[in-house]
Design goal:
295 residues; alpha+beta; Pseudouridine synthase; Archaeosine Trna-guanine Transglycosylase, Chain: A, domain 4; 10-stranded mixed sheet; 4-stranded mixed sheet; 8 helices
Amino acid sequence: MNVDGLIVVDKPAGMTSHDVVSRIRRLAKTRRVGHGGTLDPMATGVLIIGVNRATRLLTYVIGSEKSYAGTIRLGQSTVTDDAEGDVTTTASTAGVTDEAIRAGLAVQVGEIDQVPSAVSAIKINGQRAYKRVRDGETVEIPARRITVHRLEVLDIRRPDGADVIDIDVDVTCSSGTYIRAIARDLGTSLQVGGHLTALRRTAVGGLTLDAALTLEQLEERAPDVIGLPISDAARRAFPERVATEEETRVLRHGGPLATVGIDGPYAVFSPEGEVLAIVSERDGRARAEIVLLPA
């Protein structure tokens, strides 16, 4: 596999994000592989893998908004706030109405302070929170300001023979949002407990499941070139600016460009369509944050 770009992987359940990185390293025959935002082992869906030069794009991928389809179960709390952890408490959901569920989710839309799950990869005093919990410690993680742009209830089900409620949701949110914390906080607000039973990431920024390949598909196609070449990846992930021949020369020599009024980082391309750099405008100039010219 001769790759110098982004690969959109449809991650299977049961694998860590690092497991996927290791598999791509073997297929691509390079150590320069990274991922653009961790998915829990239980979760499936879009995991962005950067290979070679494209690993430099991952900082921006990690910060992109993300979309998920998930299922929340009310009536049970777990130690991990998802189905991977042991059930810690149960409560009857007989008195929980659909209206109360919708109201409990509605207050989690917009800019909110969210406390991440205690069993997470966040570092507390230099050590991962999940390791402290597994060592028997009680971990308190400070709240973080996140944004839930959209939280749509798709279905509310009450399975026969089980005193639980399952809620299918569709969420678009900022980087750093924990969907299992949304489930936990809904259960807490309704006083019945809650956790996440299924999660599928459907998009990271402009990179969606329609561009994703399974690991089996990647294995079958290797050693052919797979994924989005770095210029195509930059087009999907950033606003686009095409440089003139003179501007291309300036960028190649490390100089700034004139501003054009594009907010946030954007990709600059040569007249031939080759991505040159990721640029941000500040202090009246457009300056390269990373240069992506071939070595």
